[in-house]
Input
Amino acid sequence: MTALISRFASSLLLGLAALAMAPAQAAPFDTLEPIQPSDTPGKVEVLEFFSYTCPHCAKIEPLVEKWLPTLPDTVVFKGVPVAFNASMKDLQKLYYALEAIDRMDLHAAVFQAIHDQRENLFEAKDIIDWVAKQGVDRQAFTDTFNSFGVQTKVTRADELAKSYKIDGTPSFAIGGQYVTSPSHTGSYQGAIDEADKLVKQVLAGQ
Output
């Protein structure tokens, strides 16, 4: 129980830090130098750095889902699960395993399970048990969860978080050039609106 409380406290503090307003902020975004390379050549990448344990990520998720269908075909959106400590690693693997088995319909359900239903989804066994209850084949998911492909994506997520200097969630990176977040804009919807504006700005500059 102490470990569980510690995980929630850690994520809550990081989330609160991300949401704290900065009155002296000159712009509602940070400019990245140097510009980060895209993993999807020919497309403008939008990266959402998030954590399943972050309450602010849970709050903004419905807004993200509403925004995604409005993005043009020239834009690719990718979720990037962040681990601020070792205890969050299995949740990174959960995201990429769901992606690999084409069950991203469960992405929002993970937030609901953790924040609304208070499910203990922090370790592999509990995660696998929960996913199996959602009608997913247990062995197939377990194999994917522990696969080299998923671990490779987790490693890449860690590299991206470091390259983009992500210290709080949720944060949005646009075109390898800009990072915005609720802490920059002062609200969840403000972060979505600013990200959308930056997408259009990057597209216009191509």
Remarks:
- The beta strands are 30-31, 44-50, 75-81, 171-174, 178-180.
